[in-house]
Amino acid sequence: MLDKFKGFISYTNEEFKVFWEKAIFVVDTNVLLNFFKYTSKESTKSLLGILKKLKDSGRLWIPHQVALEYFFNYENNMLKQQEGYKLLETELKN
């Protein structure tokens, strides 16, 4: 039974090493939409760099549903970011 619920117990350092070297990373829509939420270019570049490295090594998977949700929601997220800046500007002026 412990083998079925290993994540609730603990992995050895060797098991973690294997995971980081061989795991396939599956992102959800929020990871992709975070590109519009980061306020620093460093954060955006860092996330993009990580995703590119994973893609180049064949270890990134973006499910069809995630891509679909991204394309349905990215414009709204861009607008929300702009609204947030406008609200902040208004508050600072007040």
TrEMBL record:
This is PIN like domain-containing protein. It holds the Pfam family PIN_8. It comes from Paenibacillus terrae. It comes from the Bacteria. Residues 24-93 form the PIN like domain.
